[in-house]
Design goal:
Helix 3 (about 115-130) runs antiparallel to helix 4. The chain is built from 7 helices and 12 strands. By secondary structure, it is of the alpha+beta class.
């Protein structure tokens, strides 16, 4: 009886101490994670467009809040744009930044890009064998654009400075190496997909996708019901284009209009959606 009583008391003691032990382990893990984060440096390459050679590098010895990065960037952006040779890359002041198209870009290659390029290679080869030269050439042009212009991964976070200042949840800690693009307002929309080649069309206010499609040459295998619009903030939207489902949706300057194919070979049945996801990494 005494042994049973002693065993019961011992079990109670263990159960009481267990939460303390678990809490200590969690706390220790959090401290280790925090110390690891503190040790990591942050490097930001500031640009006005993704392809411009002009840049300013901001270096921090520890991780830093997004708000601080944006504040420091605004101090350098005017000087940076004074050196820009292309007038479209210039800002007359920090207030000219097109925040809807601002982007923070990781140096890593976008997920699934390699697989998408390989799939397009196979489709191009098949259409070449079938002597469908116009389709093969179009796929080659699309593949070349994707491979050339989508080299890095875009982080889909809010970069509007006013929003970051007001809402703490939009002010994360940034650590590592990134490129920050703070562009001026663009004047064009890019149209690609089931077209002869990717092409820019001058942006017009309150114009729908059909307006831009009418400005270029599209292929007979193009989807005639919907297009995907990747807005400059990286958000993808499905826009109707058929006579039976027309519904006006605005397209912002700097957006991409992706006109999908009705169908790809069976090996690539989801390729349209995969390309749309890849296009979300586009930085102005």
């Amino acid at each position: 009886m005494k042994l049973l009583k002693f065993t019961t008391q011992l079990m109670k003691a263990l159960l009481i101490s267990l939460p303390i032990f678990v809490s200590s382990v969690i706390a220790a893990t959090q401290v280790d994670s925090y110390l690891s984060l503190r040790a990591e440096t942050t490097r930001i390459v500031l640009k006005t467009t993704s392809n411009t050679p002009q840049q300013v590098t901001l270096k921090y010895s520890t991780p830093v809040r997004l708000e601080q990065i944006l504040r420091d960037s605004l101090l350098h952006i005017s000087t940076l744009t004074q050196d820009a040779k292309n007038i479209e890359e210039q800002h007359s002041s920090p207030s000219d930044i097109y925040w809807a198209g601002a982007s923070l870009v990781d140096m890593s290659q976008p997920l699934d890009k390699t697989n998408i390029i390989k799939a397009l290679d196979k489709i191009q080869a098949q259409w070449t064998d079938q002597q469908a030269s116009s389709h093969a050439n179009a796929i080659h042009a699309l593949k070349h654009w994707l491979d050339t212009n989508l080299k890095n991964t875009r982080l889909h976070i809010t970069l509007d400075f006013d929003v970051v200042l007001i809402e703490p949840s939009f002010n994360p800690i940034i650590a590592g190496e990134y490129s920050l693009i703070l562009p001026p307002r663009p004047k064009h929309v890019l149209v690609l997909g089931a077209t002869t080649e990717p092409q820019t069309v001058e942006w017009q206010e309150r114009k729908s996708a059909n307006y831009y499609l009418n400005k270029i040459e599209i292929l007979e295998d193009a989807d005639n019901s919907y297009v995907w619009v990747i807005q400059p903030d990286g958000v993808a939207e499905k826009h109707p284009i058929a006579y039976w489902n027309q519904n006006h949706l605005d397209i912002a300057p700097g957006a991409i209009v992706y006109l999908g194919y009705k169908s790809f070979p069976s090996i690539s049945k989801d390729l349209n959606q995969e390309i749309v996801n890849l296009l979300k990494n586009w930085a102005l």
